[in-house]
UniProtKB/TrEMBL annotation:
The keyword Acyltransferase does not apply. One of its GO terms (biological process) is zymogen activation. Disulfide bonds join C111-C121, C183-C247, C227-C237, C286-C350, C299-C360, C330-C340, C434-C444, C505-C569, C518-C579, C549-C559, C653-C663, C725-C789, C738-C799, C769-C779, C830-C894, C843-C904, C874-C884, C930-C994, C943-C1004, C974-C984, C1078-C1088, C1151-C1215, C1164-C1225, C1195-C1205. Residues 1-16 form the signal peptide. Keywords: Disulfide bond, Signal. Residues 41-154, 157-258, 260-361, 364-476, 479-580, 583-696, 699-800, 804-905, 905-1005, 1008-1122, 1125-1226 form the SRCR domain. This is SRCR domain-containing protein. Coiled coil: none annotated. One of its GO terms (cellular component) is plasma membrane. SMART domains: SR (SM00202). GO terms for molecular function: serine-type endopeptidase activity.
Length: 1253
């Protein structure tokens, strides 16, 4: 009674019970449930309602779920009845309402459907959720909560009565433990709409009066119901109160919701004549204007996948009776056919010979992020639920079957790893193996519907790893190339529309239009658009005319055109394309004539390694792509690293070949090169050696004094370069040129051949652009070669991208001497008063992130010519340097030895300067980095790039908070020596399978770093950051105590040496500290006593003061720390003990499998402990704890680090700590011998002092 009283008091206080933030039941209902039900039951989860959700039962004082093994409608029926939620509509599986938490109380539940409680059904013991498979018992919990069962019940409303169906009948509601009717006073279509929506029955068609489906019995619960039509439940509508009415059952309200079926001769569940139910009778739909969009709605409404065809002329036989709908016009996104526009119920001028029909894909559909009708994640319908296919063995043959099944042409790609996003629900198939000729995916070999797979003698569900391996397809879709002499990538262009193939008229047909076709067909770039039905005249419809593409569209149908079937053409004008087929240019910053070189082989695009890559090779690529001459042959993944195979290496062309594959090269995919008597694989460097080209393309800026973004304008036509006459040449024309060359906006159009007169053809004259064109040739002009000009009128441009640059010796895109463009010449900026605020404006203006340093005294070399600005004073918020205060253009008292400079960095910290989440700037926006494989080497690059010292830790799981927006980088792999994070290997900008919960982070040492010749992460010249600049420490009084603090501060173990006299080479810049005196216990070097920042000028020696700087940086202090290795354990010393290494932010041991003196030799050398004497077995210095990081270590003995030795991989072992490896180094015996000698000598001295006199 005490327990009950406590429960009552607590329940009265809270008034309701909340589960997962959702109020499940009122105090009264919860109390009844708790006191009078043998096992309380609730529906919970994402998207759950009172009568739909994940099934949870209460047992042993905790809520738990039910496993969906054998879960069906009979089981769901019992739950719905137990909750007074009507009948079961569905029994969803696979954690349809999200995975639960806590125990899995029941599994293998088997109900007849008539039980009053789920616990009356057959089931194993509570929590004993095992199933028997292949002579073994397995726990349901192996798959976690991803098999939690759910139910969808009809809820506290139903349609019943004489002649009723699932979606039409007398309306009854459940209240006070009994069903009752609704009075039809004021009952209208708005009220009925709510009922139909609540029952998943589409829209309301009628509200028949006078107990149309027969009079009910018992209570009349509702009267004067008034709904707006948008309510989610009938009880949300206004009414006179439960049980308050003046009605009889002859006024019981009813509804008829829309119903739809496919029927007729030869019909199936998902193909047939379309009929809808209205006014108590079925009727057909007229096919006036009937198309795939309309059919798509029908197929979706019937759970029949996607619409494949809309056969005409009563294909499944003529119906009888009413023709209910005509002139149906759907967008394709409606949930019900009656939501589409139509001419009114029963309003038509048709006969049954025009009855509309559909053929749906039935058991297969393509969906997901970025999907289209012919590309997407493959889903199949089985057991009344859609599910996915796992990508085990998935290939083009399998995809070919899917594309054929969906009338989507040929398979272009067979995507894996959830390219179109992860699905939900069941993983129905895996191990699919098709020959490619099957008519349906289910005809292919596979392992069985929803079956298990065997791994390491255990059976697992396919969806054990969730939906991360869902397959997809990319089909050629509604476009093809055909005709006489056509190939896969050249031919007459035909598109599929209204169930038939048709051609495209070549009015205005150009390379931009062809580019879209080539991309859509995975055929590289467009080379030519041959006119006049080059591949023969087609037949049938001409579907498109006046096609106008920008070239960036993903489908030809996205381009502007005159409308399907609208044209004034004949088939002698059928459009055609010739694509590059096996070669294309791609990558970050690529264009039609510049980019990473990729070739198509074995049905997949791959790259070329840059070994021996030169201008001759690039010349062949540019010629093959009709892109003029090769200007550059960039290496080292200049346009970003590619993905997939590296197809070719060692390419050697004479430059005259017509195709790259005609050049000498290593075998396809056999990309090895011979160097120093060894063969090496090109793939060792991944895609960071991908070759590229920069071709001259159809436009260039050239001439005397020209730059990349300023010069005389020349265009390429008829295989030769020519100039443009400046008649009418203005800023609008120049704007197009600047945009086309990625040079920003147009600043000037200098006249009179400003950059010198050209030679040869003058290709264009009277050019007139609006300024919005994507190419100069899109502008109006007098025609190629038509002009009355001379070369003294050659047009020129100066674009905005050249208004400011960073240049000079050792400069990069984001660091260098600052120069601005004014009055037709470049000039420098004087560094008088130049500071980080000024540099911040420069960095922002150049999209180079934030300013790190402002090096003085012409750090990047002295410029020449004008000094345009002096005494610049910016707040740091200006958008351009010229907006800042300054002494006036050209007004200065400086020389070029004072030229200003800036160091920018395109990287952002998210939480303080040394403890930060990492963000990078790309494509005009900031984004995060995924922590897949993220380690200290990667962090080291970030810390260096941010002037934050060395990397100390790489905390996981968005340690500093989850970011937003793009995740730019994933699988970053740095050596640690790169100058920028983007120089490291990665999976490509924007290519990842991460969420922001995996955002990478770093903790840098901030004010301290180790640098210099021969330095490493844990040894080097000590440098500290102060006043925005790095400086050194003088070695006066420098000892092991001081070094100990540095090693601890850098997470580098103990100090082994405190080298002096610039052991790691002399530094540069200020000498920040001198006379440093540490006890050795400080947490930071700046906590130690010292002479003051920069006050390191004098030290007292032999009655004189001396300046530290007298000796320059030749007295710079250094440290050598033990690094990521230590000797520890019971009885250990500095040079003997259990070996432990530091990895992934924790210390761990080494297993002694194969551990020998060679391995120990590396450890002893690394710790400055002499040679290895012994390798005592069996955890000689005691068993460690935590991780065992290394096993099967095999060293030659000459390695400089233990991790350079062969081993089985970090964390990969089959050991226990009783096998922890140990070493005894020679320095131990030396110390022991010295100690013994001293002890014995001291004993003799005490015993016989006179002997020592």
């Amino acid at each position: 009674m005490g327990l009950l009283a406590a429960f009552l008091i607590s329940a009265l206080l809270v008034r309701s019970v909340s589960l997962g933030g959702r109020v499940v039941c009122s105090f009264r209902s919860y109390l009844l449930c708790f006191l009078f039900s043998d096992v309380p039951i609730i529906l919970n989860g994402s998207g759950s309602t009172q009568c739909a959700g994940r099934v949870e039962v209460y047992h042993n004082n905790s809520w738990g779920t039910v496993c969906d093994d054998g879960w069906d409608l009979n089981d769901a029926e019992v739950v719905c009845r137990q909750l007074n939620c009507g009948s079961a509509l569905q029994a969803p599986q696979s954690a349809y309402f999200g995975p639960g938490t806590g125990p899995i109380w029941l599994g293998s539940v088997t109900c007849s459907g008539n039980e009053s409680s789920l616990t009356e059904c057959q089931h194993p013991e509570w929590g004993n959720s095992y199933y028997y498979y292949n002579n073994y018992y397995y726990s349901y919990s192996n798959n976690g909560h991803y098999s939690d069962a759910g139910v969808i019940c009809s809820g506290p409303i139903r349609l019943t009565g004489s002649g009723s169906t699932r979606c039409s009948g007398r309306v009854e509601v459940y209240h006070n433990n009994s069903w009752g009717t609704v009075c039809d006073d004021g009952w209208d279509l708005n009220d009925a709409e709510v009922v139909c929506r609540q029952l998943n029955c589409g829209s309301a068609l009628e509200v028949p009066q006078s107990a149309h489906f027969g009079a009910g019995t018992g209570q009349i619960w509702l009267d004067h119901v008034t709904c707006s039509g948008n309510e989610s439940s009938l009880t949300e509508c206004q009414h006179s109160g439960f049980g308050s009415n003046t009605c009889e059952h002859g006024q019981d309200a009813a509804v008829i919701s829309v119903s739809i079926i496919l029927t007729g001769s030869g019909s199936t569940q998902c193909s047939g004549r379309v009929e809808v139910y209205l006014n108590n009778s079925w009727g057909t739909v007229c096919n006036d204007g009937w198309d795939l969009n309309d059919a798509e709605v029908v197929c979706r409404q019937l759970n029949c996948g996607s619409a494949l065809e809309v056969p005409q002329s009563a294909h499944f036989g003529a119906g009888t009776g009413q023709i209910w709908l005509d002139n149906v016009s759907c967008s394709g996104n409606e949930s019900s056919l009656t939501e589409c526009q139509h001419s009114g119920f029963g309003s038509n001028t048709c006969e049954h010979g025009q009855d509309a029909a559909v053929i749906c894909s039935d058991l297969i559909r393509l969906v997901g992020s970025g999907s289209s009708r012919c590309s997407g994640r493959v889903e199949i319908f089985h057991n009344n639920i859609w599910g996915t296919v796992s990508d085990s063995n998935w290939n083009l043959n399998d995809a070919e079957v899917v594309c054929r099944q969906l009338n989507c042409g040929l398979a272009l790609e067979a995507t894996q790893s959830s390219k179109f996003g992860a699905g939900t629900g069941q993983v129905w198939l895996t191990g699919v193996t098709c020959s490619g000729n099957e008519s349906s995916l289910s005809e292919c070999q596979h392992t069985g519907w929803g079956n298990y797979y065997n791994y390491n003698n255990y059976y697992y569900y396919y969806n054990y790893y969730g939906h991360y391996y869902d397959v997809g397809v990319i089909c050629s879709g509604d476009i093809r190339l055909v005709g006489s002499g056509s190939t896969r990538c050249s031919g007459r262009v035909e598109v599929y529309h209204s169930n038939s193939w048709g051609t495209v008229c070549d009015d205005g047909w150009d390379l931009n239009d062809a580019e879209v076709v080539c991309r859509q067909l995975n055929c590289g770039s467009a080379l030519e658009v041959p006119p006049s039905a080059h591949f023969g005249a087609g037949t049938g419809q001409i579907w498109l005319d006046h096609v106008t593409c920008s070239g960036n569209e993903s489908s030809l149908a996205e381009c502007q055109h005159s409308g399907f079937g609208s044209n004034t053409c004949e088939h002698g004008q059928d459009a055609a394309v010739i694509c590059s087929d096996l070669i294309r240019l791609a990558g970050a910053g690529s264009s039609r004539c510049s980019g990473r070189v990729e070739i198509f082989h074995n049905n997949i695009w791959g790259t070329i390694t840059d070994f021996n890559w030169d201008l001759n090779d690039a010349e062949v690529v540019c010629r093959q792509l009709n892109c003029g001459s090769a200007l550059q042959a960039p290496q080292s993944a200049y346009f970003g690293p590619g993905t997939g195979p590296i197809w070719l290496g060692g390419v050697t062309c004479s430059g005259n070949e017509s195709s790259l594959t005609e050049c000498q090269h290593s075998e396809w995919g056999n990309s090895y090169y011979y160097y120093n008597n060894y063969y090496y694989s090109y793939s060792n460097n991944g895609h960071y050696s991908d070759a590229g080209v920069i071709c001259s393309g159809p436009i260039r800026l050239t001439g005397s004094g020209s730059t990349r973004c300023s010069g005389r304008v020349e265009v390429y036509h008829n295989n030769s370069w020519g100039t443009i006459c400046d008649d009418g040449w203005d800023l609008n024309d120049a704007e197009v040129v600047c945009r086309q060359l990625n040079c920003g906006s147009a600043l000037e159009v200098p006249p009179s051949a400003h950059f010198g007169a050209g030679t040869g053809q003058i290709w264009l004259d009277h050019v007139t652009c609006s300024g919005n064109e994507s190419s100069l040739t899109e502008c109006q002009h007098s025609g190629f070669g038509s002009n009355t000009c001379e070369h003294g009128q050659d047009a020129a441009v100066i674009c905005s991208a050249v208004s400011i640059i960073l240049t000079g010796s050792g400069s990069t895109t984001c660091s260098g001497r600052v120069e601005v463009y004014l009055n037709n010449s470049w000039g420098t900026v004087c560094d008088d008063g130049w500071d980080l605020n000024d540099a911040e404006v420069v960095c922002r203006q150049l999209n180079c992130g934030s300013a790190l340093e402002v090096p003085q005294l012409a750090h990047f070399g002295a410029g020449t010519g004008q000094i345009w600005l002096d005494n610049v004073s910016c707040s740091g918020n200006e958008s351009s340097l010229t907006e800042c205060q300054h002494s006036g253009f050209g007004s200065n008292t400086c020389e070029h030895g004072q030229d200003a400079a800036s160091f920018c960095v395109r990287i952002l910290v998210g939480s303080g300067s040394s403890r930060c989440s990492v963000e990078v700037y790309h494509s005009n926006s900031w984004g995060t980095v995924c922590d897949d494989g993220w380690d200290l080497n990667d962090a080291e690059v970030v810390c260096r790039q941010l002037n934050c010292g060395s990397a100390l830790e790489v905390p996981q799981s968005a340690h500093f908070g989850a970011g937003t927006g793009q995740i730019w980088l994933d699988h970053v792999t740095c050596s640690g020596n790169e100058s920028s994070l983007t120089e490291c290997q990665h999976s490509g900008f924007g290519s990842n399978t991460c969420e922001h919960g995996q955002d990478a982070a770093v903790i840098c040492s901030d004010l301290i770093r180790l640098a210099g010749a021969g330095s490493s992460r844990c040894s080097g010249r000590v440098e500290i950051f102060h006043n925005n600049i790095w400086g050194t420490i003088t070695d006066f009084n420098w000892d092991l105590n001081d070094a100990e603090v540095v090693c601890r501060q850098l997470n580098c173990g103990s100090a082994l040496q405190a080298p002096q006299s610039a052991y790691f080479g002399p530094g540069t810049g200020p000498i920040w500290l001198g006379g440093v005196t540490c006890s050795g216990n400080e947490s930071s070097l700046t906590e130690c006593q010292h002479s003051g920042w920069g006050n390191s000028y004098y030290y007292y020696y032999n009655n004189y003061y001396y300046s530290y700087s007298n000796n320059g940086h030749y007295s710079d202090a250094g440290v050598i720390c033990s690094g990521p290795i230590r000797l520890t354990g019971s009885g250990s010393t500095r040079c003997s003990g259990r070996v432990e290494v530091y990895h992934n932010n924790s210390w761990g041991t080494i297993c002694d499998d194969g551990w020998d003196l060679n391995d120990a030799e590396v450890v002893c050398r690394l710790l400055n402990c002499g040679s290895a004497l012994e390798v005592p077995p069996s955890a000689h210095f005691g068993a460690g704890t935590g991780q065992i990081w290394l096993d099967n270590v095999t060293c030659s003995g000459n390695e400089s680090s233990l991790t350079e030795c062969q081993h089985s991989g970090f964390g990969s072992n089959t050991c226990e700590h009783g096998q922890d490896a140990a070493v005894i180094c020679s320095a131990v015996k030396l110390i022991h011998a010295i100690t013994t000698l001293l002890t014995e000598s001291l004993s003799e001295l005490v015993a016989n002092p006179l002997d020592f006199l």
